[in-house]
Design brief:
8 helices; alpha+beta; 219 residues; 6-stranded antiparallel β-sheet; BirA Bifunctional Protein, domain 2
Length: 219
C-alpha cells in the first residue's frame, strides 16, 4: 500500500506503552503496532528509498542487560540508513511526534582524526561554522556527543573548541504532532528535513567520510 501517514492509533499506541511498558500491554496491542505503526513505517521507507536508499527499522525491544531501567520496549519506532557519502539518516515516531535528522552519530577513530583536522583548519573549520549557522537558522538543532574539554593536542582556547569537542555531529528536528503527520505530507516533511540539513552533512562527507577501519578497530 502507498504511504498515507501515521494514523492516530500509532500515537495512541505509544501513549499507552509509555503508561504501561509491559509484555502484557505489548501482546494485547500487537495488532495495533503491526497495522498502525510498523506497516506505515515500512511504506514510508519504501517511498523515500529511490532518493535516499534503504533504511532499516530498529527492533522494538530495549537492551536492558546493563540498564537500571528494565522496561522491555522502546517508546518509539525508528529507522536509519547510511548514505554513499558516509552520513547516516534517521527518522523516529513517538507519542511526542516525529524526529528526522542526519549526520555522523558516532565517529570511529579515523573519522575523528579527519574531523578534527577539518575543524582545526581555518578554511574548512570556517565552512563548518557557516554550515551549522545555516542549518540552525532553518530551524534545526545540531547535536552530538562531546568531550568535556578540548581533545588532546588542541588548545582549550581554540576558536572552534565547541565543535572540536564533538565525537559525533548530527542535525535534526523534533516535529510536534500535527495534521500532516496523518497524511502523505509526512513523507514530504521528512525528505525536506534531510535536504535542509545537507550543508552540515555535505561538509562531514567531504572532510570525514566513512571509516576505513575494520569494525573491531573503530573504538
Amino acid at each position: 500500500m502507498a504511504f498515507r501517514g501515521f494514523p492516530e492509533e500509532a500515537l495512541e499506541f505509544y501513549e499507552g506503552l509509555e503508561a504501561d511498558n509491559s509484555k502484557t500491554y505489548w501482546t494485547d496491542h500487537k495488532a495495533t503496532y503491526d497495522a498502525a505503526v510498523l506497516a506505515p513505517m515500512k511504506e514510508l521507507l519504501a517511498l523515500v528509498a529511490a532518493e535516499f536508499g534503504e533504511l532499516k527499522i530498529f527492533r522494538p525491544y530495549r537492551d536492558v542487560r546493563f540498564s537500571k531501567d528494565k522496561a522491555p520496549y522502546k517508546t518509539n519506532i525508528a529507522a536509519a540508513g547510511d548514505t554513499p557519502g558516509g552520513a547516516s539518516l534517521y527518522v523516529a515516531l513517538s507519542a511526542d511526534g516525529l524526529f528526522a535528522g542526519s549526520g555522523y552519530y558516532r565517529m570511529a577513530k579515523d573519522q575523528l582524526e579527519r574531523y578534527r583536522r577539518g575543524v582545526d583548519g581555518d578554511r574548512a573549520g570556517g565552512e563548518l561554522v557557516a554550515a551549522v549557522n545555516e542549518v540552525e537558522s532553518a530551524g534545526f538543532d545540531v547535536h552530538g556527543d562531546a568531550l568535556k574539554t578540548a581533545p588532546r593536542g588542541y588548545p582549550r582556547g581554540h576558536p572552534r573548541v565547541e565543535l572540536l569537542r564533538h565525537t559525533g555531529v548530527y542535525a535534526g528536528r523534533q516535529f510536534r504532532v500535527a495534521k500532516w503527520l496523518h497524511a502523505k505530507a509526512c513523507a514530504d516533511k521528512i525528505v525536506e528535513a534531510w535536504r535542509d540539513v545537507r550543508p552540515v552533512t555535505a561538509w562531514l562527507d567531504a572532510h570525514v567520510g566513512p571509516s576505513m577501519l575494520p569494525p573491531e578497530g573503530r573504538r
